[in-house]
Predict the structure.
Amino acid sequence: MNTLLFISAGLILLYIGGEMLVKGSVEIAIKARISKLVVGITVVSFATSAPELFVSLKAIFLDSSDIVFGNVIGSNIANIALVLSLTSIIVNIDISKKTLNINYPFLLISSILIGFILFYFNSIPQFFGVIFLAVLFFFLTYIVKESRREQKESNSELTYQGSLSTLKSVSMLIFGILLLKFGADFLVKGAIDIAEYYNVSERVVAVTIIAIGTSVPELVTSIIAALRKEVDLAVGNIVGSNLFNLLAVLGTTALFKNISVSDPNILMDYVLMLFLTIILGFFMYFLPKAKLTRLKGIILLLIYIAYLIYSINS
């Protein structure tokens, strides 16, 4: 009973904290006058990836490295095959040229890079944490500068306005982070208890309960953005969130301790994550180009359901 309370409380706090963090972050980004796509791939992505970061930090200090990998890789799988699939089933999503030309290729390269490191070192060594964060910093700096340059050259005004004061936005941001911290504590505690009680590996719990739970902010944000026809925000959120999971979450966690792979199935999870990233690229560039249709969403969702069944039975 206590375990279920921990899991439930953790998911609720992660959801509320994620919502507050997204709202506060977007309001701050609006005041900085950057495009919706950049808002989605930077501030909103950071906000919606915060649950993964807090869960991973909590797990690494408990020497549960499989939860770190399962959380990050499982969340990236869920973002593509669950969040983006459900969003595209609800409404067809148009893909911007910037996502096709810059953002997605960078995600694919980052995913492949993580794979080389995992298969060569069977871990994420600490010094790679610094490299991951540096690469992410330069990428984000580049796209923000490009966005501001394009806004200036086009002399266009952003079509959305902030509704909160700077003080309220920052307060919401901070309070959201606190809720995410406590939500992560509860969720990891409950997940470890389940793994121990049912003799289930931490990796299985991480790629199912934790991954879906920490993907709730992405799911809510992307569906709401798509329904409001803010497709750049929806797609930017998912691409950016996966980037943050790989580079910011793994990078920050690795700063404190080497993240070692103890369950070999983690590598299989990584292969599926890379496969889904490639499939997403194929769907974006072909059949038809620059669009995620309802059919594509259904295919991705079926892959995710099959993955969950395999993970639970493995």
User: Anything to note?
Assistant: The beta strands are 93-94, 123-124, 259-260, 291-292. The longest strand covers residues 93-94. The mean pLDDT is 82. The CA atoms of residues 21 and 193 lie 28 Å apart.
